[in-house]
Design a protein that fits this description.
The complex is a heterodimer of chains A (291) and B (135). With 291 residues, chain A is of the alpha/beta class. Chain A contains six helices and six strands. A five-stranded mixed sheet of chain A has the order 3-2-1-4-5, with helices on both faces. In chain A, α3 links the parallel β2 (112-116) and β3. The longest helix of chain A has 77 residues, at 214-290. Chain B has 135 residues and is an alpha+beta fold. Chain B has two domains: 4-86, ATP Synthase, domain 1 (Sandwich); 89-131, Single alpha-helices involved in coiled-coils or other helix-helix interfaces (Up-down Bundle), CATH 1.20.5.440. Chain B has helices at residues 91-107, 111-131, and strands at 4-9, 14-20, 22-27, 30-35, 41-53, 60-72, 75-80, 83-85. In chain B, a hairpin with a 6-residue loop joins β5 (41-53) and β6. The longest helix of chain B is centred in the C-terminal third of the chain and has 21 residues, at 111-131. The chains are: A alpha/beta (291), B alpha+beta (135). The interface between A and B is medium-sized, with 30 and 24 residues.
Chain lengths: 291, 135
């Protein structure tokens, strides 16, 4: 503990500059999160309309005994899409998702894996997991275009019969401090799903003209639905990441503040001790001269 | 003239929300028009031009990157992969994109590059067609 005051001063300076960085990172994350949250309401009309339409379509298919391959899954081979961030410094955000992914892979060792974000890629590949596809460097504002890129690749494999089920694994944004690791089956669409329910309740299914045919319309909507699910996962994951980073950086800033306070105290103590020592020496010296 | 409520939605925003008399849409087998009171309908849409406005007279256009249309209760909803209203399109940028795509098309060796360049060219041409007033 008995460090020289100069050494302590140097540490204070170093921690202060770290604190400045963490504070800046907190503010950047907060600003980005605010922007991400502002985006959410403007996506809602699209999703609601799409989901209602799909519900009506599925109900119509049931009524007319049209076979819908995306409603039933014969096999049990999985595809897992894992959403993490590219950068760390976000507390336990990535670790929580990756842990869940590992648990899933233990349960389904033959599952195909698609990774989004560098963290999942680096971590899982170290564990010897191979990927069907990887998407990294997606930036801080997810776009529908990115979701299309991911959705198209996965959908192609799905339509070629590489797997029967597609699940997404991401962190769902509840609020800034709370995120929930969420595993959701996107394909096949579960028959008891609320989508079908909504379509059935609307009672419109029989009235529609499906142009050119119900089959073709369904076939065109399924990719839209799947892409929307990917986009939603991207947005939720990003909002959770930014929230987690904000909290992590705030904690780091607070800790740095605490540390600086303690160091300041020991700095003053060390300085005082030195002054006292010097005075004692001077007094001692004067005494020696007088006697 | 009776109108219908037209909405063109992308995942990011509402591009059009308007009472119109007439809408023309790029369907799988060519374009088709819809007016007020049309029966409930669902159909996939191709990349192309959505036209809307009064039945006679000047129409507005949207460059549509494919999607899906639903008509119900006199409400026409277009779910678009991408959509841009004529006045929003930056003609200069679209021209540059067109030239870039043409260059790539000429240079591309493998199939994927070629395919990509062709799609980019299609998009650029569509945007130019929507943005530039007819002569």
């Amino acid at each position: 503990m008995a460090k020289s005051s100069r050494e302590i001063k140097r540490r204070i300076a170093s921690i202060t500059s770290t604190q400045q960085i963490t504070r800046a990172m907190e503010m950047v994350a907060a600003a980005k999160l605010r922007r991400a949250q502002q985006m959410v309401p403007s996506t809602r009309p699209y999703f609601e309309s799409l989901h209602t339409s799909l519900g009506i379509l599925l109900e119509a298919a049931q009524q007319r005994d049209v076979e819908v391959p995306w409603l039933s899954s014969a096999g049990d081979s999985h595809c897992l899409i894992v959403f993490t961030s590219d950068r760390g410094l976000a507390g336990g955000y990535n670790a929580a998702v990756i842990r869940r992914a590992e648990a899933f892979l233990e349960e389904h060792p033959t599952a195909q894996v698609v990774v989004v974000g560098r963290k999942a890629r680096d971590h899982l590949s170290r564990k010897g997991v191979t990927f069907l596809a990887e998407f990294v460097n997606l930036g801080d504002s997810p776009s529908p275009r990115q979701a299309w890129d991911i959705a198209q690749v996965v959908m192609d494999f799905y339509l070629h019969g590489l797997f029967d089920r597609i699940s997404v694994l991401y962190s769902k944004f509840i609020n800034t401090v709370t995120h929930e690791v969420t595993l959701r089956t996107v394909m096949p669409i579960e028959a008891g799903d609320e989508l079908v329910q909504r379509g059935r309740e609307s009672g419109f299914a029989a009235d529609y003209i499906y142009e050119p045919s119900l089959d073709v319309v369904l076939e065109s909507v399924i990719p839209l639905y799947f892409q929307a699910a990917v986009y939603e996962s991207l947005i939720e994951a990003k909002a959770s990441e930014l929230g987690a980073r904000m909290v992590a950086m705030r904690n780091a800033t607070d800790n740095a503040g605490e540390l600086i306070r303690e160091l300041n105290l020991s700095y003053h103590r060390a300085r005082q001790a030195q002054i006292t020592k010097e005075i004692a020496e001077i007094v001692g010296g004067a005494d020696a001269l007088e006697s | 003239m009776a109108t219908l409520q037209l909405r063109v939605l992308t995942q990011e925003r509402t591009v059009v929300s308007k009472e119109v008399e007439y809408v023309k849409l790029p369907g799988k087998d060519g374009s088709f028009g819809i007016m007020s009171g049309h029966a409930p309908l669902m159909a996939p849409l191709e990349m192309g031009i959505v036209e809307f406005g009064p039945r006679e007279g000047k129409k507005r256009k949207v460059a549509l990157g494919g999607g899906f249309v639903e008509m119900r209760d006199n409400q026409l909803t277009v779910l678009a992969r991408t959509a841009e209203l004529d006045e929003e399109i930056d003609v200069l940028r679209a021209r540059e994109a067109k030239e870039r795509a043409e260059r790539r098309l000429a240079e591309s060796r493998d199939e994927i590059d070629y395919h990509r360049a062709r799609l980019a060219l299609q998009r650029a041409l569509l945007r130019l067609k929507v943005a530039e007033p007819e002569r």
